[in-house]
Design a protein that fits this description.
The complex is a heterodimer of chains A (290) and B (496). With 290 residues, chain A is mostly helical. Chain A is built from eleven helices and two strands, in the order E-E-H-H-H-H-H-H-H-H-H-H-H. The N terminus of chain B is likely disordered. The chains are: A mainly alpha (290), B alpha+beta (496). Chains A and B meet through loops of A and strand 9 of B.
């Protein structure tokens, strides 16, 4: 800022003293309307501080005059939204699952609600697209460890799997064949070769032949004679392309050696019935539902 | 007071006006000075009549259009031009535009822009002078002002008078008529957005939507202030067009021009003057006094001029009275001025590379729009491939992809359609939520009239078919009765 006055020769107006490439800014007063708007905003803001919560204090804040708070407003909006959905939720709570699925309006409501409940409660393990991860089943495919009908899905979500919070939870336990010394290392390897052959993968034929009787004795009770699995025991099919813990030799050996037992919470204890029903409808619609 | 009055000089009916242009060349004021009030005097003549006609036609179109009916059959609105925002449709006579066809509106806006370029390159700021809403409503408001308060002289006198009952009555009458026009303007606008007869009743019985009243209120306020009080200030300071227009014009563009070679040197009128020794301009300032922008066209082409040509009418009138040829002020080009000075013949060059280029662009987009409109289908399909997961492997090794597909049935009847997917052998389609279709290769379904319906589709391909991690997939939607089709090219994805 230069301190000597400079007056623009064309307009006779004093400049601000700043200069950029020979261009100077005239020091014209602000338009009056603009100033009025500015002062009106200042006055408005003072009124705003008084009426609404505004200033932080040491351990609290000014409360305003009308008892407004944005937190209460959100709570009220949620309450209104919930009240608006109450009718539909009540219908979902009362209707049998099959009926919800075939009623277009109800199904669309349930799908929307189910999707959001899924994203909040289920996506952490099963993925936001329900695509699953190692040890957490993909819900888009057509293999269901505990059954893929809509009622079976509902039951699984309600009671969960191998948890301690619900006595109706699905229960089953696979022995740790290697770790507990039921099978020797070589035997585990042979069984694994046989399992590989069951799913049509490349396998050592002689080892698989040695593994077959071992499989019949130790595994067929749950996984079936042909490795077709059983939803009753939650024993996955071994004769297909879907592998929860990996389908290569090393993964299978590890599974047989140490056993696998996935756990899922009983959502019936954490969510209301209508939400669980909506979840069942949503999961069933992903494409794998039977 | 006398100096402000129009003084009469010795020739009958020829008056010399005491008026000064708001931006007089000799004393051109700095930018942004306080406004000088303008009291345009009325004119008669070709351009004034033309302006009245343009006003009648444009206002007529604006006020009448929402009331035109167009039968679209049961369940559809019968308003010829309707912007149905809640229903997300735009109706224009036989055309019904969906939100995803907004490019028609974009096309119209581009055409309007290019049309403006074209007009400007041919006749300067003619849009501003005749058809711009600001001009039309200002003209209407000035007409009302003149009707209530009298012409220029009377208005100046009235402004100077102290407030009295008579003055208050005149002012109030003027404001009330302005307000009625302004409300009529805002009122007419909202009729484009709802069924006009119903809305009219609702507006008066207090049942219309708040947004309708708010719109009427805002447009009433803006029409009242912009047309009544701000007038030429809008054209000079608020509108961007005068700052841009110069780029559209060249030396052959017609603009309202004062013929310096003929007019100068200007001298007051003398009877039996020797016209060879002086210019035709008698400096009566009739051109200044009629100008709604308050400028003096004799100072040359300037930003403020809206090319309304009222000064041409005023000058031609004077030229007639003093027995000189018309056209001292006329639509003319800079190039003609040059030609005259060189003693060449003047000419009108409408077809120039610039005008032809603007016209060609304008016509190209227009023809494109017509083509798209004529070949437009009332059946459309949009397919979105699921991102999460990209694909799913089934127990038998098949690969499955999920899609959300949307069918746009723009017809007013229910339709039965089949969907066929091609690109890979052994494709199986399944629509989620429609068990009865089963795994039929070509599911069929019905879509309600004038609706967009969304479905989730699962496409399964047997093991070993997909080579690589993706393949092209083509969906074809076909109407069972008419055989009409719509298609969409998508992708099918699998493991790498």
């Amino acid at each position: 800022m230069s301190d000597h006055r400079h007056v623009d020769e064309f307009t006779g107006v004093e400049t601000t003293g700043h200069e950029w490439d020979g261009i100077r800014e005239l020091d014209n007063p602000l338009p009056r309307w603009w100033q009025w708007v500015f002062w009106a905003c200042v006055v408005w803001s003072v009124g705003y501080w008084v009426v609404y919560p505004a200033w932080p204090l040491v351990s609290s804040h000014t409360k305003g005059m009308i008892g407004y708070s944005s937190r209460a407003e959100v709570a009220q909006e949620i309450k209104t939204a919930t009240a608006g959905m109450a009718g539909q939720l009540e219908r979902i709570r009362k209707a049998p699952l099959e009926q919800i699925r075939t009623d277009t309006g109800l199904r669309e409501f349930a799908l929307a609600g189910g999707r959001s409940a899924f994203n909040v409660n289920c996506s952490q393990c099963h993925g936001s697209g329900a695509q699953g991860f190692k040890g957490f089943p993909n819900l888009n495919d057509d293999e269901w460890i505990w059954g893929g009908t809509i009622d079976a899905i509902f039951r699984t979500i309600t009671h969960g799997i191998r948890n301690t919070e619900d006595e109706n939870a699905h229960q089953s336990e696979m022995p740790a064949f290697g770790r507990d010394g039921i099978l020797t290392k070589a035997q585990v390897s042979d069984v694994a070769e046989y399992v590989l052959s069951l799913s049509g993968q490349a396998a050592d034929a002689t080892a698989a032949a040695r593994g077959k009787p071992l499989f019949t004795d130790n595994c067929a009770a749950c996984h079936g004679d042909n490795g077709q699995g059983s939803t009753e025991f939650g024993a996955p099919a071994l004769n297909n392309n879907i592998w929860l813990y990996g389908g290569d030799k090393q993964s299978i050996v590890e599974t047989v050696t140490n056993s696998r037992r996935g756990v899922m919470p009983a959502w019936g204890r954490h969510l209301d019935e209508a939400t669980v029903k909506q979840l069942a409808i949503y999961v069933h619609s992903l494409g794998g539902g039977k | 007071m006398g100096s402000l009055l129009d003084s009469v000089i010795d020739a009958p009916e020829i008056r010399e006006y005491d008026v000064e242009a708001v931006n007089r060349k000799e004393t051109r004021p700095p930018l942004y000075v306080p406004r000088k009030k303008i009291h345009p005097r009325r004119t008669h003549g070709f351009f004034r009549t033309f302006k009245w006609w343009v006003m009648a036609v444009t206002l007529g179109i604006y006020y009448v259009t929402p009331w035109l009916r167009w039968d679209r059959g049961p369940g559809a609105p019968d308003q010829a031009v309707l912007v149905d925002i809640p229903g997300r449709r735009f109706y224009f006579f036989f055309i019904e535009i969906w939100p995803q066809e907004f490019y028609y509106i974009a096309g119209l806006l581009i055409m309007a822009g290019l049309g403006l370029f074209l007009v400007t390159s041919v006749v300067g700021r003619a849009w501003c002078g005749y058809a711009c809403p600001q001009t039309v409503w200002t003209d209407l408001f000035i007409w009302v002002e003149r009707l209530v308060e009298g012409d220029r002289g009377a208005r100046i006198r009235l402004d100077k008078e102290p407030m009295s009952a008579a003055k208050a009555t005149k002012r109030l009458t003027k404001y009330v008529i302005w307000l009625i026009i302004a409300m009529g303007t805002g009122g007419a606008w909202v009729f484009y957005f709802a069924d006009a007869p119903t809305l009219l009743v609702d507006l008066f019985t207090g049942q219309a939507a708040t947004v309708a009243y708010a719109t009427v209120g805002v447009l009433t306020f803006t029409t009242f202030t912009l047309g009544g009080f701000m007038r030429e200030q809008v054209c000079t300071y608020m509108c961007p067009w005068p700052r841009i227009q110069a780029a559209m014009m060249d030396e052959e563009s017609l603009t309202v021009t004062y013929r310096t070679d003929r007019g100068e040197p200007r001298k007051p009128f003398e009877k039996n003057a020797d016209w060879d020794k002086r210019g035709d301009c008698i400096d009566c300032k009739a051109c200044v006094v009629v100008c709604p922008m308050g400028i003096d066209i004799r100072d040359g082409q300037q930003l403020e001029c809206i090319t309304c040509a009222l000064c041409i009418d005023a000058c031609d009138d004077v030229m007639g009275k003093i027995g000189r040829p018309r056209g001292l002020i006329d639509y003319d080009s800079i190039a003609n001025d040059e030609r005259r000075r060189e003693g060449k013949e003047t000419k009108l060059r409408l077809f120039r590379p610039r005008t032809l280029f603007y016209f060609a662009l304008w016509a190209l987009i227009g023809l494109g729009m017509v083509y798209v409109l004529l070949t437009r289908s009332d059946l459309d399909i949009n397919v979105i491939h699921d991102r999460n997961p990209l694909y799913t492997t089934l127990s038998d090794g098949s690969i499955r992809n999920g899609y959300t597909f949307k069918i746009l049935n723009k017809a007013r009847e229910q339709r039965t359609l089949t969907l066929h997917a091609s690109g890979l052998p052994g494709i199986k389609l399944k629509v989620v939520g429609s068990e009865d279709m089963g795994d039929s290769p070509d599911p069929y379904f019905t879509v309600k009239p004038d609706r967009l319906q969304s479905f989730r589709l699962l496409v399964t391909v047997p093991p070993g078919i997909l080579k690589g991690d993706a393949a092209d997939l083509r969906f074809v939607l076909k109407e069972i009765n008419t055989g009409q089709t719509a298609s969409y090219n998508s992708l099918f994805r699998g493991p790498q």
